[in-house]
Write a structure and sequence with these properties.
The chain has 14 helices and seven strands. By secondary structure, it is an alpha/beta fold. It folds into two domains: 67 residues, no CATH class; 256 residues, no CATH class. A five-stranded mixed β-sheet has the order 3-2-1-6-7, with helices on both faces. It has a two-stranded antiparallel sheet with strand order 4-5. The chain is elongated and about 90 Å long.
Length: 356
């Protein structure tokens, strides 16, 4: 009898648990959210936008707050935060291999060829610069994110090719760190210093065999150090003609990264506002916009997406910005001097006299 009683008791417990599971959980939902299918943007405007790829964008493209988007779509702000977090992560994971894979030796060679043909700087594998992405001051961060411009930011360090596509990026450096320091601490900078980027072998410049082979280099502004693999302008304003020619030729190639940043900010208006996100999520948003920038430039060659300076445009010499320490080694100085002499001799162009 005791066994039957135990079985009966277990059955009653099981039946009670099943009834509890079947019982519908009651949650209070605001009337505004209840009318989501009738009035929310997802069920109406978004369905129309799907027919127009150029307008089918939201948080990254508009920079709207989570609260604004939540109201438009009639969902909770925490739901929007979760969607954005998962969305930008998925964008990066799905697109990075196709649109921002680390360049191979052949890729670097093609980039250098494009810089020489389009921007008259031979052996250049990319233009480097840093962009401050302005954030709301992170909690308990002290002065780590406080930059020289008086705002709080993380830094996007980018290597850009001759077509203004991002080839390598490093996101998340503290705003207080200089561009040179960001480069030194980045994975790219460490790989460059260790010789792990698989750059092409040294090559003789066209019609200048007597100058000997030169290494492939990157170009940057005055905030970066002069190295054998990194060319920066000569400091100062009163310079001999040859050095002014070199500075102009370098600045012309370096403008590719500045133009890329300009297009990025224009296309993704999240950069036009103070980003009110945790630094970790802001980093993922920046990475997503960079890989989407590459996708658009390679697959949607419209005037709006490919807004850039025409090939051959003559640009004025830029003024000096922040100047980094320039304790360069002898070999780095020799390489820059060789480029300098080449640009005013075998590598001269017809419009030098007009500019310099």
């Amino acid at each position: 009898m005791a066994g039957i009683a135990n079985i009966a008791a277990l059955y009653l417990l099981w039946e009670s648990e099943e009834r509890r599971k079947r019982k519908r959980r009651r949650l209070w939902v605001h009337d505004i959210l209840r009318r989501r299918p009738q009035l929310g943007e997802f069920h109406h405007l978004l369905q129309e936008l799907r027919l127009d790829d150029g307008r089918f964008q939201r948080f990254l493209a508009t920079g709207d707050s989570f609260r604004t988007i939540a109201t438009s779509f009639r969902v909770g702000a925490s739901t929007v935060a979760s969607i954005v977090s998962k969305g930008v992560t998925a964008i990066w994971d799905c697109l990075v291999e196709e649109f921002m894979a680390v360049p191979t030796t052949e890729d670097w060679r093609l980039i250098a060829q494009q810089f020489e043909e389009q921007w008259n700087f031979p052996l250049c594998c990319g233009a480097i610069d840093g962009k401050h992405v302005v954030l709301k001051a992170p909690a308990n961060s002290g002065s780590q994110f406080f930059n020289y411009k008086g705002t709080f930011s993380i830094v996007l360090l980018a290597v850009v090719d001759a077509d203004k596509c991002f080839r390598i990026i490093d996101v998340g450096g503290y705003g207080r760190t200089s561009d040179g320091g960001i480069l030194a601490n980045s994975v790219f900078g460490q790989a460059l210093r260790a010789g792990d980027l698989k750059l092409p072998a040294d090559r003789v410049l066209s019609a200048a065999a007597q100058r000997g082979p030169l290494p492939h280099v990157f170009v940057a502004d005055e905030a970066f150090p002069l190295r054998t693999d990194l060319m920066r302008p000569f400091p100062g304003r009163i310079l001999p003609r040859e050095r002014r020619v070199f500075n102009y030729r370098l600045s012309r190639a370096r403008l590719m990264v500045e133009n890329a940043f300009g297009i990025l900010s224009s296309q993704w208006r999240i950069y036009r506002r103070v980003i009110e996100l945790r630094p970790e999520l802001a980093e993922r948003c920046v990475k997503a916009t960079c890989v989407l920038h590459n996708l658009l430039r390679r697959t949607a060659p419209t005037a709006a997406v490919r807004d850039c300076l025409p090939v051959g445009v003559v640009l004025p010499l830029p003024g000096l910005g922040r100047v980094a320490a320039n304790n360069a080694g002898r070999e780095a100085i020799r390489i820059r001097e060789t480029f300098t002499s080449y640009f005013s001799a075998e590598g001269t162009v017809s419009w030098h006299d007009t500019i310099v």
